[in-house]
């Protein structure tokens, strides 16, 4: 039989085929191969008892995140507030670099629009990221604005919501999924005071099709898995220019004939995004060697 792992807890993997679910163990061969089944994995399994099964095979993954550990995510909804707390473009770019590296599409959700009065600055933020190729949705949970726009993106996709504490994820999720009665689910979204207290990863099925991952979020975003030479490949607007530099292995910092820096000079690459690239590059350069 084939199904999707929708929850992993205490060594058990809970697999759904769309109608029924099984509590499964994974075969020991996976440990020998250095593989661990993840929530989101499509797997082949067999029933070994009433409601119990064993996972025999993990089907190929289209994407994989390390934090949180989840597979086959095809949309990350990056939730950032415009006010209370103040919009943080550096953190947003950090999230975007990680989603690009994971091969996951990103939707930028700007919350608390009712508290933000600078319409010109909001238009600037939207246009900057839309010009790169990201879709941006502005929401206000108090006014119920933008909620249906978000819902349309989630249909028939496996999505994860991420963002710093206090940006309005709880209000947004409550506005989106009140009809799912999450409070009475076996494992629910426990959202309090802007902090997502979930300790494990679980997929919640949507009535209109698709899944939303209830996760602890991106608990730690660093660049420990990045190489300096590959960082620019995860900035969409820099990717096409990487091979156009005068010198092979250009890090786009101080080298002459750099196509990326030329893009900053002519305005096709935002100076703020480039400044964040340099910060990330420095973090990678200064990290301690891994043994």
Description:
The chain is of the alpha/beta class. The chain has helices at residues 29-32, 89-102, 119-132, 147-154, 169-177, 236-239, 259-265, 271-286; strands at residues 2-9, 12-16, 21-26, 42-49, 52-58, 64-65, 70-71, 75-81, 105-111, 135-138, 158-162, 191-192, 195-196, 202-205, 211-214. It folds into 3 domains: 2-58, Beta Barrel (OB fold (Dihydrolipoamide Acetyltransferase, E2P)); 64-214, Rossmann fold; 228-286, Ribonucleotide Reductase Protein R1, domain 1 (Orthogonal Bundle), CATH 1.10.40. The chain is built from 8 helices and 15 strands. Strand 4 (42-49) and strand 5 (52-58) form a beta hairpin. The chain starts with a strand and ends in a 5-residue tail after the last helix.
Protein traits:
single chain; 291 residues; alpha/beta; OB fold (Dihydrolipoamide Acetyltransferase, E2P); Rossmann fold; Ribonucleotide Reductase Protein R1, domain 1; 6-stranded mixed sheet; 5-stranded mixed β-barrel; 8 helices; 15 strands; 25% strand
SS-based structural class? alpha/beta
Number of strands: 15
- List low-pLDDT spans: 181-197
Instruction: Sketch the major β-sheet.
Output: 6 strands, mixed
Shape: globular
- With helices defined by DSSP (H or I, 4 residues minimum), what is the helix count? 8
Mean pLDDT: 85
What's the architecture of the largest domain, going by CATH? 3-Layer(aba) Sandwich
Which value, in Å, is the CA radius of gyration?
Answer: 21 Å
What is the CATH superfamily label of the largest domain?
Answer: P-loop containing nucleotide triphosphate hydrolases
Order of helices and strands: EEEHEEEEEHEHEHEHEEEEHHH
What is the percentage of strand-forming residues? 25-35%
CATH topology grouping of the largest domain: Rossmann fold
Number of domains: 3
Q: What is the strand arrangement across the widest sheet?
A: 10-9-8-11-15-14
Measured distance between first and last alpha carbons:
42 Å
CATH class category name of the largest domain? Alpha Beta
């Amino acid at each position: 039989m084939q199904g999707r792992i929708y929850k992993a807890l205490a060594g058990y993997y809970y697999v759904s085929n769309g109608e029924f679910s099984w509590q499964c163990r994974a075969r020991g061969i996976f440990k020998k191969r250095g593989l661990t089944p993840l929530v989101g994995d499509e797997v082949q399994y067999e029933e070994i008892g009433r409601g119990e099964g064993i996972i025999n095979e993990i089907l190929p993954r289209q994407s994989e995140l390390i934090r949180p550990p989840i597979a086959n995510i095809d949309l990350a909804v990056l939730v950032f507030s415009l006010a209370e707390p103040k919009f943080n473009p550096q953190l947003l770019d950090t999230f975007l670099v990680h989603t690009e590296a994971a091969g996951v599409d990103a939707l930028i959700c700007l919350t608390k629009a009712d508290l933000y009065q600078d319409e010109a600055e909001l238009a600037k933020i939207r246009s900057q990221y839309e010009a790169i190729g990201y879709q941006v949705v502005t929401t206000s949970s108090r006014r119920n604005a933008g909620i249906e726009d978000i819902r349309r993106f989630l249909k028939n996709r496996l999505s994860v919501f991420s963002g710093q504490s206090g940006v309005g994820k709880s209000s947004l999720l409550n506005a989106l999924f009140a009809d799912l009665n999450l409070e009475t689910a076996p494992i629910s979204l426990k959202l309090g005071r802007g902090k997502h207290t979930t300790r494990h990863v679980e997929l919640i099925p949507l009535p209109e099709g698709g899944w939303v991952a209830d996760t602890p979020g991106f608990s730690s975003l660093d660049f420990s898995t990045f190489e300096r030479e590959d960082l620019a490949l995860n900035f969409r607007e820099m990717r096409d220019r990487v091979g156009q530099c005068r010198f092979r292995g250009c890090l786009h910092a101080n080298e002459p004939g750099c196509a990326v820096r030329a893009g900053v000079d002519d305005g096709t690459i935002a100076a703020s995004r480039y400044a964040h690239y340099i910060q990330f590059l420095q973090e990678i350069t200064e990290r301690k060697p891994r043994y």
